[in-house]
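Narrative of activities, Objective 1.

The group set out to show that a structural description can be obtained from nothing but a protein's sequence at a throughput compatible with the screening campaign. Below is one input-output pair from the validation batch, recorded exactly as produced.
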Amino acid sequence: MELLTTRLEQDLKKLREISRALTPEEITSSRVQQLIANLVQFAQNYSSPDGHYKCAGLSAVQVGFPLRIYVVRDRKTEVFTPYINPGLTPLGDATNSHVESCLSIPNVSGIVERYTRVRLSYLDPTGQRQMLKEVVGFTARVLQHEQDHLDGILFTDRMSKPK
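Output recorded for this entry:
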C-alpha cells in the first residue's frame, strides 16, 4: 500500500477524485475487507519521519482507492475504526480553528476552521447502518478532514493561515 502525495501531479489528480459509495455486496467482499484491514494496518504503523506524529485518520483515496471508506484512530484506545459510506451533519453553527496537516501533503500545515460538533452516520464492515449521535473536539475535526478527502477536498483548500 502506497500513500499518494501532492508532490506528484498524477497523485494530486487522484486525490482530487470524488470517491464512490460501496454497495452492500462490495462491503462484505473479501477485496474490500482486505482493503479495510490494510488501511488499519497502514494507519497503525505510520509515524512521521521525525517520530512526533501518529496517523489520526486515513482515507482509501489516499492510498489509491477512490472509495468512500476511511479509518479514524480513537485517542484513548489507539484503535482505528473503519467508516464506510459515511455522512456527516454539523450539530449547530459553532466552529473553531486549529492547525491541521495531512499525510498526503508533506511538510505543510495551516489553520483550518471546522465545526465543533458533528453527527456521523456510516456503515460498519458488516454493512450495518450505525450512527454516532454527537462527536466533538479532535475526533470531530479528524472526521471532517477525512470526509473532505472523499469529496476530493484537501485541507489546504480550507486553510486560512499557512504555517
